[in-house]
Amino acid sequence: MEVYLLATEQDGPVPLDALRASFATDEVEFTPAEDGQGFVLRADSSEVHVRLTVGAEGLPRFNKAAYSGSPEAFERLGKAKAYYHLSLEPGGAQPTLPVFEALWAVRTLLEHVPGVLVDLAAFKLHEPEDVVEITELDFDIRDHVHLHAVEVTEGDTPLWVHSHGMEKFGARDLEIFHLAEQDLLPAESFLHELCTDLAFGQGPALRSQVGTSEGQAFMVVPSEEARANLLGVPLETFEGHEGLFLTVVSPLGRHNTSQLLVPYRERFSQEPEEQTESMRREAQALLPAFLARFQRRGLMEPLTFLVRAPFDTHPDGNKVVENLWLELMARDDGSLVGKLVDGAVHTTEWRKGAHVEVEETQVNALALSREGRALDEAEIRALLNAERPM
Hints:
Number of strands: 19
Domain DUF2314: 296-365
Strand order of the largest sheet: 2-3-4-5-1-6-7
Distance between the termini: 68 Å
Number of helices: 9
Mean pLDDT: 89
Pfam families: DUF2314 (PF10077)
Number of domains: 3
Protein name: DUF2314 domain-containing protein
Helix content: 10-25%
Strand content: 25-35%
Order of helices and strands: EHEEEHEHEEHEEEHEEHEHHEEEEEEH
Largest sheet: 7 strands, antiparallel
Structural class: alpha+beta
């Protein structure tokens, strides 16, 4: 299955000798193709086939208007002269493995030629720096799938939300019907969780009642069965979406799933400004003792130091401020360096695992954990009071 297309601005292929040297590791077997331009990578149980075409001839047909990406990515795509086509066998015992082998192949190619990556399954464009982050940071399903909302009926719950991109993991895409506008962000959060499970080969069994991470019950049913129960949705709605999906339904097999998303709405509720300001004042008062304890931690220290700070994200081009937690790694002249515990909710601008730097004055909450257990407020105060000068 062809899953990625690397569009490059170079007329011809990267010399195979240069690629052979770049792929010279114990984990990967590099085999040139008979045409002297493409190659095959074998690693563990995965196999990635790479072939090169020059010019528009041989390109797969795809509607650029359906793709998401930055203006710079589209500009690079427009300048492309040659294309590396990456194919793999989806699925297997570790469905993410072939996908990441393909992405590492792309990253290596980008070390030799400028270009932009086209995810043909998820309708996404990725610039070189995106590929580096995707391969280095914690897995984020949002890098690999695209969720599409379509109004298909009239009334208060007209939306059909479905994914694109899961086929490269050897899984069906997901869909859910009869959602309202206010259900969109909660539905994204829920579907991303479910897509992640499927990508790792840990999805729920068909037609079996399972629970979300929030405890709500649901089932997944093959779309060819579930769509037969839809009322008021014309068949032409599915033109261009003839592929097989998994449909999320209630435990009774119905499409009334709005209640399923209630717990997810809380993730997008705005924290009251008074609460944020109160937490900020408290955090700033404790910060000197907090940092003093951090700086004298031992190599085998069982404590984990966490701080929260605001970060700007830009969904749909609009600025949204999200408070994100980071595990503190270092302190440097009034700045704190740490690793994000969770990525931003609205976009992938701030990915989980990314190293970031914030000013000490931006910290608006503190937390401590010992061997994975979060300390309560009384325990934190007792610990930090020991750092205060007598």
